[in-house]
Amino acid sequence: MLFPGGFTFTNFLTDVFSIFIFVLWFWLLITVFGDLFRRRDVSGLGKTLWVILLIVFPYLGVFIYLISQGRGMAERQNQRTQQARDELRQVVGFSVADELEKLERLKDSNKISNEEYSRLRARAVQ
Q1: Which residues contact 80 (CB under 8 A, 6 or more apart)?
Q2: How many angstroms separate the CA atoms of 103 and 117, rounded?
Q3: pLDDT band per the 50, 70, 90 thresholds, residue 25
Q4: Which of 40, 52, 63, 102 is a good FRET partner for 3, with 20 to 30 A between their CA atoms?
């Protein structure tokens, strides 16, 4: 307990907030490690230095990694997501042409508007 006085509402809120911050930091640490070890553009020495920084200065290391590599993390995550979608499409067996045909039928039967058709078509072609 941070404040004296036994079990009080203030101590309870402080403890809950402390646990929340710890869980949040732990989640960020796992995210950073996951991104770091999936990267192919960082050498083994670079990864080792990052791991040492993350172990010796855990909070500071996570924040430094997020600030310096945040944009790259988002781009790599988007690439992995797109790759997973493409692999799923290959496994499931539908193609973009099938999707466009379905959209055309929905538009012809007036189940979707022209705006929805345009939006969904642009999304399917991606």
Answers
A1: 38
A2: 7
A3: very high
A4: 63
Side chain identity at residue 81, one-letter code: T
Q: State both tokens at 48.
A: 């080792």
Q: What are the structural domain ranges in the chain?
A: 1-93, 94-126
What whole-number distance in Å separates Cα of residue 54 and Cα of residue 37?
13
Which of helix, strand or coil describes residue 126?
A: coil
CB atoms within 10 A of CB 54: 19
The residue whose two tokens read 């941070």 is 2
pLDDT in tens, 56-115: 998 999 999 999 988 899 899 999 999 998 888 778 767 777 888 888 888 888 888 888
Q: Work out the number of other CB atoms within 10 angstroms of the CB of residue 100.
A: 15
Q: What is the pLDDT of residues 35-62, one digit of tens each?
A: 999 988 989 999 999 999 999 998 999 9
Name every residue whose Cβ is closer than 8 Å to that of residue 11 and which is 6 or more positions away in sequence.
Answer: 1, 2, 3, 5
Return the C-alpha torsion angle 97, 99, 125, 78, nearest 10: -130
